[in-house]
Fold:
Amino acid sequence: MKNDGGFTYPALLALIVVMGIAITTASQSWTTLMTREKEAALLFRGDQIRRAIASYYNAPADKSKRTYPPSLKVLLKDPRFPGVKRHLRKIYPDPMTSDGKWGVILAGNGRIKGVFSQSDKEPMKKGNFSAANAHFKDKMHYSDWTFFFVPKKQKK
Structure:
């Protein structure tokens, strides 16, 4: 009697183990890729909102009437102008949170001078930021990535 049945089962187990390792590795690579994409989106969106706040602040010709926006919504259509004046095309959601809501940074008068992600996850990106975002270096949470506008001091 010939015993042929012993090879198939161990080969199948080895194949399952190899496939499991390959899927785990692919999953980790996919997760890393998606996190980096979300970080890039966060940097882009936060910067767009910061620029829109700066545009809103600097829009009035009369420097004494410059102020931060009362809400993000007014960046879509500035009510201070008779025509349509847009500072932002749309309010981008926060890519790092499931609800997409930004945390807001308020100025002393209660108006919005910036935004931040409400995610407490640790960023993968720790350095090599643009000059506007240089203060993000070595931050431990996405919520530490603050996108805010501070007007330059006017010379008298």
User: Anything to note?
Assistant: The radius of gyration is 25 Å.
